[in-house]
Amino acid sequence: MEQQERTEYRSAPAVVAAHVVMVCDDLAEVDQVSRRLASYMYVCLAAYRNVEDLAYAAPRGRVTLIILEDVGPPDAVGWILRIASRRWRNCPTAVIGNAGDTELEMLARRHAASYFARPMMDQEWDALLSHGLARMLPPDRRKVIRRPV
């Protein structure tokens, strides 16, 4: 009987240094952010369709940036901003809404979140992601490592 050669496969441990949480019902914008995050190493994107999903099924691990994109009425946005500020202290939060939506902008500013108006250019996405990730990564990874895509 011939002896077959056995090959052992070992999976590398999953290393995730940063979790970006995004609540958005537009899949094109989620895809845009995920393509931008593909150039960063050790970053995971958790996308939710509505704020209730984030509140009741939050990701495990360290959340480094929260992006809320026009996720409903202002009281729902205020509710999730309060939950996020209690659950993830010192985590940068960005609210993205339509240009001229002053009520949503004032609500975001009241909860210490940044506000961006649609449509967002690629440079704005890059600035938002690099600022949020560089600020919250561990000291040995503060300089965000970009890999070619």
Please explain how this structure is put together.
By secondary structure, the protein is of the alpha/beta class. The protein has one domain: Response regulator (Rossmann fold). It is built from 5 helices and 5 strands, in the order βαβαβαβαβα. A 5-stranded parallel sheet has the order 2-1-3-4-5, sandwiched between helices. Helix 3 runs parallel beside helix 4. The longest helix is centred in the last third of the chain and has 15 residues, at 122-136. It is globular, with a radius of gyration of 18 Å. The mean pLDDT is 80.
Give a short account of the largest sheet. 5 strands, parallel
The name CATH uses for the topology is Rossmann fold
Mean pLDDT metric: 80
What is the domain total for the residues? 1
The CATH homologous superfamily corresponds to: Response regulator
Category by helix and strand content: alpha/beta
How many β strands by DSSP? 5
- Distance N to C terminus: 48 Å
Rounded to the nearest angstrom, the radius of gyration is 18 Å
Second-tier CATH architecture: 3-Layer(aba) Sandwich
Query: Roughly what fraction of the amino acids lie in strands?
Result: 15-25%
The 3D shape can be described as globular
Low-confidence stretches: none
Sequence of secondary-structure elements: EHEHEHEHEH
Helix percentage: 25-40%
Count every helix, treating DSSP H or I runs of 4 or more residues as helices: 5
CATH class: Alpha Beta
Spatial order of the strands in the main sheet? 2-1-3-4-5
